[in-house]
Design a protein that fits this description.
8 strands; alpha/beta; 8-stranded mixed β-sheet; single chain
Length: 318
């Protein structure tokens, strides 16, 4: 009897390992759908190159007790906060240092949330919104950030995490999302229906996508769930020929989001500019992009007198 039980346990264990391996293979196939050959995913940047002070490293814990890796750069007189979120399989969040330099001049504290190096095997899609909340909880614990507006920003999946975090948390005042989508399930189904050959993955079903996600992801993943933005400001940016996120998906998302916020802005560029700005690590070099971004930030922090920005730009030394 003991031998039989041991055999059953071994068989169940083997099946579990096989299932994990199979699911990991499916997850890699899905990630490869988003991977762009023209992006250097190994690129890392140093803050000092951008004239920024060395960021403080934060080791936080989300509500599940999993470690959250984030970095913080705060000017002398913070007037607002931007949380920059990396994508699941995107360049290091340090690629946002160029933006942080401009935020610093304006008086914004910048937090960099790295979700590319997730190691906990029990973590699934969309748990990154719990990581964003861990950063928010830290911000709320600091006196210097009391009552300051929080803006979440990201590219592609990083922008999706930012949007979903806003839907989950009223602590987020506004979102800036570049080349993003409302959920991977919705994005995957849209591209499948559009007969994009990259999404012709016969061994991956919508149920597989659900199994890779947290339990409530299916109720959150529908496009209509963007109603959770609840009239807060959102800036969506897109290029017309993006090979990763189709322009048709962007227009669909834009039309749906208009139903739930009058504070929606969009910025569209020609060509295939996944990062919208031609030189993402030097955003000020793209005048149209830069002015749109900064005007949006100033608008969503309207409680700060506009005259204060010029004073801060003159006094916030880097």
């Amino acid at each position: 009897m003991l031998l039989v039980m041991n055999f059953i346990c071994l068989s169940v264990g083997a099946q579990s390992i096989e299932t994990d391996v199979n699911m990991a293979d499916k997850e890699m196939q899905i990630i490869n759908c988003l991977r762009r050959m023209d992006v250097d995913y190994s690129a890392e940047y140093d803050a000092w190159i951008f004239g920024l002070p060395e960021p403080d490293s934060l080791r936080l814990r989300n509500q599940y007790g999993n470690e959250v890796l984030a970095y913080e750069i705060c000017p002398a007189i913070p007037i607002g906060i931007v949380i920059c979120v990396s994508g699941i399989d995107a360049p290091s969040v340090s690629a946002h240092y160029g933006h942080a330099r401009e935020f610093y001049k304006m008086g914004y504290a910048t937090f960099f949330l790295d979700v590319t190096n997730r190691t906990e095997i029990n973590e699934k899609c969309y748990e990154e919104i719990r990581d964003v909340q861990a950063v928010i909880d830290y911000i709320k614990s600091k006196m210097e950030y009391t009552n300051l507006p929080i803006v979440a920003m990201g590219v592609a999946m990083g922008g999706t995490i930012a949007l979903r975090s806003m839907i989950e948390s009223y602590d987020i005042s506004a979102v800036i999302a570049l080349s993003s989508f409302s959920s991977y399930e919705d994005y995957f189904a849209f591209n499948r229906e559009g007969t994009d050959p990259r999404y012709d993955l016969p061994n991956i079903s919508m149920k597989d996508l659900a199994d890779m996600s947290v339990a409530d992801s299916i109720t959150l993943s529908q496009l209509c769930k963007v109603e959770g933005v609840d009239h807060r400001p959102v800036l969506l940016m897109q290029s017309k020929r993006d090979k990763a996120v189709p322009y048709a998906y962007f227009t669909r998302l834009l039309d749906e989001m208009k139903k739930y916020t009058n504070e929606l802005e969009s910025f569209v560029v020609e060509g295939d500019e996944h990062y919208i700005c031609r030189d993402f690590i030097n955003p000020a070099s793209d005048k149209a992009y830069f002015e749109t971004l900064m005007d949006f930030l100033k608008r969503v922090t309207s409680s700060v007198p506009l005259s204060a920005y010029r004073k801060l730009e003159d006094t916030q030394a880097i």
